[in-house]
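Researcher: Following up on the earlier apo prediction. This time include the ligand. It's pyridoxal-5'-phosphate, with the SMILES given after the sequence.
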Amino acid sequence: MDGLRTRWPNSEVLFASKSLPAVGMYRLAQDEGLSVDIAGGGELRLALAAGVDPGRIHFHGNAKTDAELRMALDAGIDTIIVDNDDEIDRLERLLERPQKLLLRVIPGVDAKTHASQATGGANSKFGLPIDQAERAIARMRSHRLMRFDGVHLHIGSQILGTGQFAEAVEKISAVGTFPTYDVGGGLGVAYTYDEQAPGVDDYLDAIVDAARANLPADARLLIEPGRSMVARAGITLYRATTVKRTGRTFVAVDGGLADQMDIALTQQRYEAILADRLLEPWTETVQLVGRQCESGDLLVDGAAMPPARIGDLVAMAATGAYAYTMSNNYNGALKPAIVFVADGEARLVTRRETYDDLLATHAPAMAAALV
Ligand SMILES: *Cc1c(COP(=O)(O)O)cnc(C)c1O
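Model: Understood. Below is the ligand-bound prediction.
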């Protein structure tokens, strides 16, 4: 945040909360002076429950419902990032007070990342192409309660270069002159020993140099990092449940793609260690697998480690972003707990799901079984 502010004082950093949607994290973001962005009623409820100031909430999404928009308007959130013309129709019906709006545009930038993480290419489902933006902006400007404030873009996630960000700033400047430009998130991180990611300073230099060259000097500049804030702050702890030496060595743990979907979705490689036997020689290369009923539930394809035993503590690094986000109940798995650790102190912020939590939504079927 300070890095952006020293380079471009009229700026704001929004934590992209979908990367770690936990009440404890919303609270931490707010305490650190960040604004937050949300993409739906659920994330709005989590943010409000955490005590996030509605004046610091920005609402994204390509398919916001009337009910969600009403929740956001009732809460008095700062900005709605309008995705499409239907949403302008909805807002025409729903607005009773002035509301600040940005328009999401498709910059037509190749983010050079995994296809499921690229969101700014010409065929993106998010936002409007630049040639349709003008009409949408005119509609918003002519409405007495719509306070059109500028444009937004987000080119994708896990981006390992800086040129793409500069290109996006240049493209968005062509849409017109506005008070605010929100250039999204997407900075990638190093997940493995070999991967290299740009540093935050290089990333900010690329964006702000492009802003100096292309945007009005008095514009407000927003960025929305998610992954780069939380990915490497998080590790997942598993216990080895089964060690099977057949053709290969399979070390199976008490979790899997129910808590770590990212691998199946994007083939991202991670690193794992045996946390309690780190200093023993790493003499075996294993398939670190989860317990969900998919052969694709492979956490690390070929992880070097000491010969594993049942009960070993397996730590998988850099799982702070998008792991809890996509956790699910596959095979009746219970969503994991989240523990914050700082200065040697551990604090539970999200408890593990219980079997009662799992059953709660099925109450209608259980009631029916009783009659
Ligand atoms: C996901 C998302 C972000 C954050 O992306 P990261 O890669 O986690 O930094 C920011 N803005 C929007 C609109 C997003 O959808």
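Model: The chain has twelve helices and 17 strands.
Researcher: Noted. I'll compare it with the apo version next.
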